Automatic annotation (TrEMBL):
Protein family (similarity comment): Belongs to the class-II aminoacyl-tRNA synthetase family.
EC number(s) stated in the UniProt entry for this protein: 6.1.1.7
Reaction it catalyzes: tRNA(Ala) + L-alanine + ATP = L-alanyl-tRNA(Ala) + AMP + diphosphate
PROSITE patterns per the UniProt record, alphabetical: AA_TRNA_LIGASE_II_ALA (PS50860)
Protein name per Swiss-Prot or TrEMBL: Alanine--tRNA ligase
Gene Ontology molecular function: alanine-tRNA ligase activity; aminoacyl-tRNA deacylase activity; ATP binding; tRNA binding; zinc ion binding
UniProt-listed InterPro entries: aa-tRNA-synth_II/BPL/LPL (IPR045864), Ala-tRNA-lgiase_IIc (IPR002318), Ala-tRNA-ligase_IIc_anticod-bd (IPR018162), Ala-tRNA-synth_IIc_core (IPR018165), Ala-tRNA-synth_IIc_N (IPR018164), Ala-tRNA_ligase (IPR050058), Ala_tRNA_ligase_euk/bac (IPR023033), DHHA1_dom (IPR003156)
Domain notes: Consists of three domains; the N-terminal catalytic domain, the editing domain and the C-terminal C-Ala domain. The editing domain removes incorrectly charged amino acids, while the C-Ala domain, along with tRNA(Ala), serves as a bridge to cooperatively bring together the editing and aminoacylation centers thus stimulating deacylation of misacylated tRNAs.
SUPFAM superfamilies: Class II aaRS and biotin synthetases, Putative anticodon-binding domain of alanyl-tRNA synthetase (AlaRS), ThrRS/AlaRS common domain, Translation proteins
Cofactor mode of binding and number, as noted: Binds 1 zinc ion per subunit.
Gene: alaS
Record's keyword annotation contains Repeat: no
Function according to Swiss-Prot or TrEMBL: Catalyzes the attachment of alanine to tRNA(Ala) in a two-step reaction: alanine is first activated by ATP to form Ala-AMP and then transferred to the acceptor end of tRNA(Ala). Also edits incorrectly charged Ser-tRNA(Ala) and Gly-tRNA(Ala) via its editing domain.
Binding site for Zn(2+): H563, H567, C665, H669
Length: 871
C-alpha cells in the first residue's frame, strides 16, 4: 500500500469507474432538489428520483465525488477521529444495469489492485440473509469464509427512507487497523465487534425491494446499485494516519489556524478539539456559502450560522478575540478549488459573509457568556425565558448553550424556550395582517365546480364586456347588489389583474344598464376563479346582466412600470453584488415598489448609486420587454430566474428584457423600458438577518419626489436666509452652536442640582451615619448620577439618595461610601424603597438605581427612612 494524496485517490476512483463505462458527473449542489432534505447528505441524493422510479435515467452507470453536509453528530465533531459536517462521498451507481456481482468484484479490484491495500487487512460484512452476496465474496472474489461476517438489519440493510419505498441489503468493506487495546476478546475480534479495531470505509447498497404499507418486501423490476466510499476516511487509510484530521485534506487548514491563532496542534487535547472543530467547520462554511446559503435564523441559513458561531466560539476558547475565520477560506479554496471551482470563484463572497457574521457574533460573545454565567450562578439552571433572552439578545442558539454547559449538570428548559419562540413567530405573523379574502370557503369551491375558472384578458386589453355569472354578499349568493352595498362579482372573463406574485390588483369600474360599481380589489380565492370586490356607487347590479369592465388605465400603467423596474433592479443587484442575490419577496403598487433580497450586509452608498445608475442606464436604452410562453420544464432548463419555492403551472410566462434579465413572471409589464421613466431608490433597510429591502419609485412618483426635494430646498433657503450653496455650511454652523449651548445648559443644570442645600434637601442621622437626601425634578439620568457623586464628595462619608420626580414616575439613585458597605447596602436600600414606590431596581453595595410609579410617596419614604436602610 503506497502513500496517495487525496487528489490522487479522488481521481483514481473516477478514472477506475470511467474505465468500467461509467459516466463521470460533477458534484451536485449541497442544496438538494428534494423537499424532504435540508442538505445533500449522501452521494445518492441527486439520483433519488431515479431510484424512486419517478424519472428515467439518462445514463445507466454513473460515478461521482459528491460534496455532502451532515449535522446530526455536530457535537462529536472535533472530539472523534472521523466525525465531520462537510465531507466527500465517492460513489458508483447502476440504474437497472449491473448488480451485485459487478459491484462487489469492481470494489474489490479497485481496493486491492488500484489502491493496493493488502488483502490480509480486509474483511467484509453482508446482510445475514443475503446468501447471494456471501457466495460472490466467498466463491468469486475468494475471501476466506471466516472474514465474511453476517450482520443484522441494523448494520447491513438500507432503507426505506420513510415508511415505504425502495430498500435492500448492503455489504461493507472493512480494514483491520490492528488497534485492539479496547477489545474484550482479541482472539475472536471481527467487524461484529464495536471495539473500533475494524474500520468500515465502503458501503455497497443493493436496492432490490420495495417495502409496501404493510411492511412487505416486493422485488423491484429494476434493481439498482448505490455505493458510498468516504474520501476523508479512505485518505486516512492511504496516508497511514490515525485520524482524518491528520490527512492532507485538513493539515493545510490546521497550519493556517496555527498561524492565525498562535497555537500548536498536538500539544493539548482540549486545544486540539477546538482546532479540529474550526478546521472542519471552515470547510463546511466555505462550501455552503459558495452554494448560495447565507446566515439566517431559519432552515439552511440557521445551520450555517450555527457552524459559524460554533467555530468563532472555539476560536475564543483558544484565546482569540478578533475575526479570523474568514482568513481560512482562501486555504480551503486553494486545497479544494480544482475539483470544486465554486469555492474559488465565490472566495470574495465567502470571505465577506464570514467576516460580517464573525464581527456580529464577537460583539455579543463576551457579553452573552458573562450573562449566561450570571444566570447560572444565581439560579443554577436556565429557564425558557433565560434561553429566549440569550437567543434574542446575544444570538446564542440553544445548541451553543448546550455545548457550553456540556460538562456541567445544568438543566435547560427547552420546551419553555420553544413556546416563547412560537409566540414570537405568531406575533410576527399577526403583524403582517390576514385578509379575510384569503380564506377558502365552501361556497367558493362550489362556485368553481359550477362556473369553472376565469379567463384573463388583461395582458392585451383594459376593457371588455361579459355577463355577471354570480354575486356574493357576506359569503352568500344573491341576485342583486344595490347602491352603497359591497360584494363580490364573478365573470367568465376579466381584464382586471388579480393580486398575486407581489403585484397588487387592478382597480376600476363595472357598468351595466342599471348601475355602476367601483372595483377596489380583485383576488383569486380558489384555483383560477377571480372575485371582484366592489362597492355600488349608482343604481344596482343584477346577476345575468351584461357588464362593461374598465380597468383604471393610469394605475395599471404605474404598476406595470414598477413591476418591470423590479426585474431591472433584481438583475442590477446580481451584477453589482453577486449572483448570491435572490429575491425573497416583493410588493408592486402604483406608487412604489418594494424588493426583498438575500444579502449579508447593508449596501454602501457607492453600491446603491451603482445599482441606481445601472437600472437607469437600461431604462434610457429603451430595451424591448418581450413575453414568451413555455413549459415549466423548458424554462427551468434555460437561464431563467425563478422562485422555485413558488408553485408554477405547466405553462409559464418568461419575461425577457433584452439580454439583461429573464424571469418567470405572471405580472403586467411595460413594452419598453423607456416607459418606466426615472428610477430612484428611496430606502435600503434590513428585513431580517441575511435579507435586505429596497424601496424605490418610478415615473410620476419620482417627479413628485424631486419636486418635494425642491420645495424643501426653497424652504431651507428662506428659513436660513442663505443661498442654495450655503445651506449645508449654515446647518453645520447651527448644529455646532446648538451642541455648545447644550453643553453649557448641562453644566448649569449640574451646578443647580449639586448646589447648596435647599428646601428639597434632608439630612438625617441613622446609627451615627449621615444620610443626605435631595429631591430634583425632570433631570437627565446621567445628571442625577453625577449629582450623587458630587454630593458624596462633599459629604465625605455617609449615604446619598437623590430622587428625580418626573410626570408619572420617580427615578432615584443610592450611593454608599465604600467604607460603610458592610453596614449599609445601596442595592438593598434601593430595592426596599422601590417596593413602597411601586417599582423595582437594585445594584452594587456601593451604588444602585431604581424607580417607581408612586411619586406622592417620596415624602413618606424620607420620613420613615430608617425602616428602609437596614440590611
Amino acid at each position: 500500500m503506497r502513500y496517495m494524496t487525496s487528489e490522487e485517490i479522488r481521481q483514481s476512483f473516477l478514472d477506475f469507474f470511467k474505465s468500467k463505462n461509467h459516466t463521470v458527473l460533477p458534484s451536485a449542489s449541497l442544496i438538494p432538489n428534494d423537499p424532504q432534505l435540508m442538505f445533500t447528505v449522501a452521494g445518492m441524493v441527486p439520483f433519488k428520483p431515479i431510484f424512486w422510479g419517478k424519472i428515467e435515467p439518462t445514463y445507466p452507470r454513473i460515478a461521482t465525488c459528491q460534496k455532502c453536509i451532515r449535522t446530526v453528530d455536530i457535537e462529536n465533531v472535533g472530539k472523534t477521529p472521523r466525525h465531520h459536517t462537510f465531507f466527500e462521498m465517492l460513489g458508483n451507481f447502476s440504474f437497472g444495469d449491473y448488480f451485485k456481482r459487478e459491484a462487489i468484484k469492481w470494489a474489490w479490484e479497485y481496493v486491492t489492485e488500484v489502491l493496493k491495500i493488502p488483502e490480509e487487512k480486509l474483511w467484509v460484512s453482508v446482510y445475514k440473509e443475503d446468501d447471494e452476496a456471501f457466495e460472490i465474496w466467498k466463491t468469486e472474489v475468494g475471501i476466506s469464509e471466516k472474514k465474511i461476517v453476517r450482520l443484522g438489519k441494523e448494520d447491513n440493510w438500507w432503507g426505506p427512507a420513510g415508511p415505504t419505498g425502495p430498500c435492500g441489503p448492503d455489504t461493507e468493506i472493512f480494514i483491520d487497523t490492528g488497534r485492539s487495546e479496547n477489545c474484550p476478546d482479541v482472539e475472536n475480534c471481527s467487524p461484529a465487534c464495536d471495539c473500533g479495531r475494524f474500520l468500515e470505509f465502503w458501503n455497497l447498497v443493493f436496492t432490490e425491494y420495495n417495502q409496501d404499507e404493510a411492511g412487505q418486501l416486493v422485488p423491484l423490476s429494476r434493481k439498482n446499485i448505490d455505493t458510498g466510499l468516504g474520501l476523508d476516511r479512505l485518505t486516512a487509510i492511504m496516508q497511514g494516519v490515525e485520524t482524518n484530521f491528520d490527512t492532507d485534506l485538513f493539515i493545510p487548514i490546521i497550519r493556517k489556524i496555527e498561524e492565525l491563532l498562535g497555537v500548536k496542534y498536538r500539544e493539548k487535547e482540549n486545544q486540539d478539539t477546538s482546532i479540529r472543530v474550526i478546521a472542519d467547520h471552515s470547510r463546511a462554511i466555505s462550501f455552503m456559502i459558495a452554494d448560495g446559503i447565507l446566515p439566517s435564523n431559519e432552515g439552511r441559513g440557521y445551520v450555517l450560522r450555527r457552524l459559524l458561531r460554533r467555530a468563532v466560539r472555539h476560536g475564543s476558547l483558544l484565546g482569540n478575540k478578533r475575526p479570523f475565520l474568514h482568513k481560512i477560506s482562501e486555504t480551503v479554496a486553494q486545497k479544494m478549488g480544482t475539483i470544486y471551482p465554486e469555492v474559488k470563484e465565490k472566495l470574495r463572497l465567502i470571505e465577506e459573509v464570514t467576516l460580517k457574521e464573525e464581527e456580529r457574533f464577537l460583539e455579543n460573545l463576551e457579553k452573552g457568556t458573562k450573562r449566561l454565567w450570571q444566570i447560572i450562578n444565581n439560579k443554577g439552571n436556565l429557564e425558557g425565558a433565560d434561553l429566549f433572552m440569550l437567543h434574542d439578545t446575544y444570538g446564542f442558539h440553544v445548541e451553543l448553550v448546550e455545548e457550553m454547559l456540556s460538562d456541567r449538570d445544568i438543566s435547560l428548559d427547552k420546551e419553555g424556550f420553544e413556546k416563547l419562540m412560537q409566540e414570537q413567530r405568531e406575533r410576527a405573523r399577526a403583524a403582517t395582517g390576514n385578509r379575510e379574502y384569503g380564506v377558502i370557503s365552501t361556497l367558493n369551491k362550489e362556485l368553481y365546480e359550477k362556473l369553472g375558472g376565469t379567463e384573463f384578458l388583461g395582458y392585451e386589453y383594459l376593457e371588455t364586456e361579459t355577463e355577471i355569472s354570480a354575486i356574493l354578499k357576506e359569503n352568500e349568493l344573491v341576485d342583486t347588489l344595490s347602491e352603497s352595498e359591497e360584494g363580490e362579482l364573478v365573470f367568465q372573463k376579466t381584464v382586471f389583474y388579480a393580486e398575486k406574485g407581489g403585484q397588487v390588483s387592478d382597480t376600476g369600474l363595472i357598468e351595466t344598464s342599471t348601475g355602476t360599481a367601483k372595483v377596489f380589489h380583485v383576488h383569486i380565492p380558489y384555483q383560477d376563479m377571480v372575485l371582484h370586490r366592489v362597492r355600488v356607487i349608482r343604481g344596482q347590479l343584477k346577476k345575468g346582466e351584461i357588464a362593461h369592465l374598465v380597468v383604471d388605465k393610469e394605475k395599471r400603467k404605474a404598476t406595470a412600470r414598477n413591476h418591470t423596474a423590479t426585474h431591472l433592479l433584481h438583475a442590477a443587484l446580481r451584477r453589482i453584488l453577486g449572483d448570491h442575490v435572490k429575491q425573497s419577496g416583493s410588493l408592486v403598487e402604483p406608487e412604489r415598489l418594494r424588493f426583498d433580497f438575500s444579502h449579508y450586509s447593508p449596501l454602501s452608498l457607492e453600491e446603491i448609486t451603482a445599482v441606481e445608475d445601472l437600472v437607469n442606464e437600461k431604462i434610457l436604452s429603451a430595451l424591448a420587454v418581450t413575453i414568451e410562453e413555455k413549459s415549466f420544464e423548458e424554462a427551468k432548463s434555460e437561464d431563467v430566474i425563478a422562485l422555485f419555492e413558488e408553485k408554477y403551472g405547466d405553462k409559464v410566462r418568461v419575461v425577457n428584457i433584452s439580454d439583461f434579465s429573464r424571469e418567470l413572471c405572471g405580472g403586467t409589464h411595460v413594452k419598453n423600458t423607456g416607459e418606466i421613466g426615472l428610477f430612484k431608490i428611496v430606502s435600503e433597510t434590513s428585513v431580517s438577518a441575511g435579507v435586505r429591502r429596497i424601496e424605490a419609485i418610478t415615473g410620476n412618483e419620482t417627479l413628485k419626489y424631486l419636486r418635494d426635494l425642491e420645495s424643501l430646498r426653497e424652504d431651507l433657503k428662506s428659513m436660513l436666509q442663505v443661498s442654495e450653496k450655503m445651506i449645508l455650511e449654515r446647518v453645520v454652523m447651527l448644529t455646532q452652536d446648538l451642541r455648545e449651548k447644550e453643553r453649557e445648559i448641562k453644566k448649569l443644570k449640574e451646578k443647580l442640582l449639586s448646589g447648596k442645600s435647599g428646601s428639597d434637601d434632608h439630612e438625617i442621622m441613622i446609627d451615627g451615619t449621615k444620610f443626605f437626601v435631595r429631591i430634583v425634578e425632570n433631570a437627565p439620568a446621567e445628571l442625577v448620577r453625577n449629582t450623587a457623586d458630587i454630593l458624596m464628595q462633599r459629604l465625605g462619608n455617609g449615604v446619598v439618595i437623590v430622587f428625580d420626580k418626573q410626570e408619572d414616575k420617580v427615578l432615584f439613585v443610592v450611593k454608599v461610601s465604600k467604607e460603610l458597605t458592610q453596614k449599609f447596602n445601596a442595592g438593598q436600600i434601593a430595592r426596599n424603597i422601590a417596593k413602597t414606590l411601586g417599582g423595582g431596581g437594585g445594584g452594587r453595595p456601593d451604588f444602585a438605581q431604581a424607580g417607581g410609579k408612586e411619586v406622592n410617596k417620596i415624602e413618606e419614604v424620607i420620613q420613615s427612612l430608617e425602616e428602609y436602610v437596614r440590611i
